[in-house]
Design goal:
Elements lengths: L6 E8 L2 E8 L6 E6 L12 H12 L4 E6 L8 H8 L5 H15 L4 E4 L8 H11 L6 E3 L26 E3 L3
Parallel strand pairs: 3-4, 3-5
Antiparallel strand pairs: 1-2, 2-4, 6-7
Length: about 170
């Protein structure tokens, strides 16, 4: 389907706290829930490079739609800044709201694909969140893993780049 027919949407807890981002090209195909690290600048109107890559990978995987949510909802192109924010007391209410929102969306998805990459500085935090949202899903999926066992990020480069036709594999960190 051409970009002309790509449905784009995003929802926010506040102006700099993105709850979810959705891209849809075929409503008759399954929906994937993607779990990233933190949102960059993609929104309901614009795709950033990571989102474009996610579209390519999910289309190739037979999905007609994805919902992208993140471990940390703070919009920032710098993951380190997102983790620093997440350690503050002010982040607690946003992280809890984010957890609830992800749990709700997980029930609508046919698969949960983790794609936060090796940039996650607190793997235990991520695993705790994932176990909380697992619900009906027997497994979490990914597009391959890094040397440390973390799921590959869609923008991985060099020898870690995810091929366009990469099949999903079960992610076994949880």
């Amino acid at each position: 389907m051409s970009e002309l027919f790509l449905k784009r949407d995003a929802s926010y807890f506040s102006h700099n706290m993105r709850s979810s981002l959705t891209r849809e090209w075929d409503a008759d195909l399954p929906c994937a829930l993607l779990i990233g690290h933190n949102p960059s600048f993609g929104n309901g109107f614009m795709d950033d490079p990571s989102i474009l890559r996610m579209i390519t990978l999910t289309k190739a995987g037979g999905f007609g739609r994805f919902i992208l949510m993140n471990i940390i909802p703070l919009v920032s192109p710098v993951p380190r800044d997102a983790w620093e924010w997440a350690k503050t007391k002010a982040a607690d209410v946003w992280l809890q709201a984010n957890r609830v929102a992800i749990r709700d969306q997980a029930q609508l998805a046919s698969k949960i694909i983790v794609c936060f990459g090796a940039i996650c500085q607190d793997v235990e935090f991520a695993i705790d969140l994932l176990e909380d949202i697992k619900g009906k899903h027997e497994h979490f999926w990914c597009w391959g893993t890094n040397a440390d066992g973390s799921p590959r990020h869609p923008m991985a480069r060099g020898r870690h780049r995810i091929p366009d036709n990469q099949e999903l594999v079960i992610w076994s960190q949880t």
